[in-house]
Write a structure and sequence with these properties.
Helices cover 41% and strands 12% of the residues. The protein is α/β, with parallel strands linked by helices and 314 residues long. The chain folds into two domains: 4-54 and 281-309, no CATH class; 83-268, 3-Layer(aba) Sandwich (Rossmann fold), CATH 3.40.50.970. The chain has a six-stranded parallel beta sheet with strand order 4-3-5-6-8-7, sandwiched between helices. Bound molecules: thiamine diphosphate (TPP) and magnesium ion (MG).
């Protein structure tokens, strides 16, 4: 129940009551919950048995179905590609349409966790691993390799697909070599937007001009250049190819699926265009209270106003 999943505790109706099922008394009681102390699985089974025959009001189900339909329309618009810059959502849509329902996707940091959560149409239980706990850069490929090791035991014929940004790739990529070495095949999509684009977006959204997040905006960089991810991945023994657009990405993805070993597919995406805008929630971040720039103090007031929706209770 951390910031991303709770909108920093703003996404609940004021009168909503939580049931805290936890083996630790201290944790079960948090957030003014109705505390249920016990093992999670046994607790859920017991609660389910107690709820046998319970049916929620039809209006509630209808609302959920209508919201789902509206969201599906948002996703369809986000993933559509054609005459516009390539985006994370488009890449996600292409892969989503080509995977087997039991293939597994893994991502972790940057803009991809939110983009996958918003735009991936989940096809099977336990097939989407978004490292939302800490959004830890570097988990993508290393965690993907771990997921693939587990998957080879349970569902050896399915694929593990990793979505990773250029920044995370640079931080931790060596398990590409491990996956080739151990013959635990991965399909890795490196989506390169020229730096820490999601942090750049956050910087802009808090009233500041771009500074030091995109490689092009780094004052310590005399001549910016992009990493040759394809050559880098190939040096670790993987198949690697660079594609120019989402249509090419689809063809490359099918080649990667047919291949016996790890494939790395690289595509450039736009750092500014094509972000998912729907479904955003408030996020408790520290912003500057005092600044010479009115844009910063204005955004500060806006962010602080969001606190009013935060749920009370520890
Ligand atoms: C280990 C670690 N260090 C720093 C961060 C803070 N951080 C979150 S996203 C991000 C940039 C990630 O860049 P990239 O993988 O290219 O994704 P993009 O922002 O372009 O979507 C940073 C520095 C983090 N989440 N994890
Ligand atoms: Mg990036």
């Amino acid at each position: 129940m951390q910031d991303f999943t709770t909108g920093s505790w703003t996404v609940f109706a004021p009168d909503a009551r939580l049931i805290g099922l936890n083996v630790g008394r201290h944790d079960a009681a948090k957030h003014l919950s109705l505390a249920v102390v016990g093992d999670a699985r046994l607790g859920l089974e017991t609660l389910a048995a107690a709820l046998a025959g319970h049916v929620v009001p039809a209006a509630w189900t209808a609302k959920a179905q209508a919201e789902r339909k509206a969201w599906d329309a948002c996703v369809a618009a986000n993933v559509a590609h054609g005459d516009r810059p390539a985006s994370y959502a488009q890449a996600i849509g292409v892969v989503n349409a080509l995977v087997h329902p039991r293939d597994r996707v893994v991502t972790a940091a940057g803009g991809l966790p939110a983009e996958v959560t918003a735009n991936w149409r989940t096809l099977g239980v336990g097939t989407v691993d978004v490292e939302f706990g800490f959004s830890c850069m570097g988990y993508e490929i290393a965690g993907g390799w771990g997921a693939r090791i587990a998957q080879t035991e349970a569902e050896p014929d399915q694929d593990t697909v990793v979505f990773v940004g250029d920044g995370s790739y640079l931080l931790l990529n060596s398990d590409i070599y491990s996956s080739v070495l151990t013959q635990k095949k991965l399909i890795i999509l490196v989506l390169d937007n020229g730096g820490f684009a999601v942090i750049n977006k956050l910087q802009n959204n808090t009233g500041q001009p771009s500074f030091n997040n995109l490689i092009a905006d780094c004052p310590t960089v005399p001549v910016p250049f992009a990493v040759d991810f394809e050559a880098h991945a190939r040096a670790m023994g993987a198949n690697a190819e660079t594609v120019a657009n989402p249509a090419e990405l689809g063809a490359a993805f099918l080649r990667a699926k047919a291949a016996a070993k790890t494939s790395v597919i690289i595509m450039k995406v736009d750092p500014y265009e094509g972000w998912t805008t729907q479904g955003h929630a408030w996020w408790e971040i520290g912003t500057a209270q005092v600044s010479a720039a009115p844009s910063v103090t204005e955004k500060h007031a806006e962010v602080e106003a969001g606190r009013a929706a935060q749920r009370q209770g520890l």
